[in-house]
Design brief:
Two copies of one chain form a homodimer. The first copy, chain A, is α+β, with helices and mostly antiparallel strands. In chain A, 33% of the residues lie in helices and 19% in strands. Chain A has helices at 34-44, 53-61, 71-86, and strands at residues 14-17, 22-25, 28-29, 50-52, 93-96, 100-103. Chain A has a three-stranded antiparallel sheet with strand order 1-2-3, covered by helices on one side. A three-stranded antiparallel sheet of chain A has the order 4-6-5. In chain A, a hairpin with a 2-residue loop joins strand 2 and strand 3. Chain A binds chain B through residues 1-2, 48-50, 96-99, 102, 108-109, and chain B through 20-22, 27-29, 31, 33-34. Chain A binds a DNA duplex through residues 33-35, 69-71, 73-78, 80-81, 95, 97-98.
DNA sequence: CAGGGCGTTCACAAGCCGTTTACCTCGGGG
DNA sequence: CCCCGAGGTAAACGGCTTGTGAACGCCCTG
């Protein structure tokens, strides 16, 4: 099947090390807040899989979101902003309208 | 070309996973809208069987279409367009004039 | 006590999608 | 030929979803 993404060298030059509370690009750490790293880690833990907001929220916050909670969207937006700056041209987080978000290690599809 | 046949994978390299809100070609998700995936799923659930527009509509929309409703045709058209791009040369959805549509996993007959 | 960082919420703009309509083409009968 | 029904598809439209800047409050630190 598809190659497993190890911590050593994922596609796109982005390394996520949750146990070290860090995400690295070319060895340089992104300055992410705790929540931002949690959301990124959760997304990246299921590459190419569409995650609903509910799944993401449950994974990171540990409970169900209240109706109309936009927290996930806000964090995705902030993550994209920081990733865009660190990896210009890469689109790692894809939106699936009406469903949720998908992380794609190779910024394609 | 000769791919391994996994459980979810019909001929043509198209994998439909409604519970994951996704349809995959070579592991890459097609960007289908919710409705498009519903129509494709319904068609593909009855391979080689001609489904009338009424059947399809009832299956996806959960009610009977109003007279002269063209929604099904529009979605079939959009699906064909996206499938054509992802799987050039394949004709998975066949028209049966005056009756309805038929999904053929092996793009023949 | 002032300042700053962060998580959360709010508000509004922008964009996408479902639905409907309109226009075209094709074939069969008269 | 002309008419008519069936189907393909582009495009209009309105509503809902999403992107994102900003405000607010909490907590920590100096």
């Amino acid at each position: 099947m598809a190659d497993q993404v190890h911590e050593g060298r994922p596609a796109g030059g982005l390394e996520i090390r949750p146990e070290e509370h860090a995400a690295l690009v070319d060895g340089r750490p992104l300055s992410l807040t705790v929540r931002e790293l949690q959301v990124l880690t959760s997304l990246a833990a299921h590459p190419q899989r569409i995650m609903t907001r509910e799944e993401l929220y449950a994974d990171v916050w540990g409970r169900a979101p209240r109706r109309d909670d936009r927290s996930v969207d806000v964090y995705v937006s902030r993550l994209r902003s920081k990733l865009r700056e660190a990896l210009p041209g890469c689109e790692l987080i894809h939106t699936h309208n009406g469903i949720g978000y998908r992380y794609s290690p190779d910024d394609q599809a």
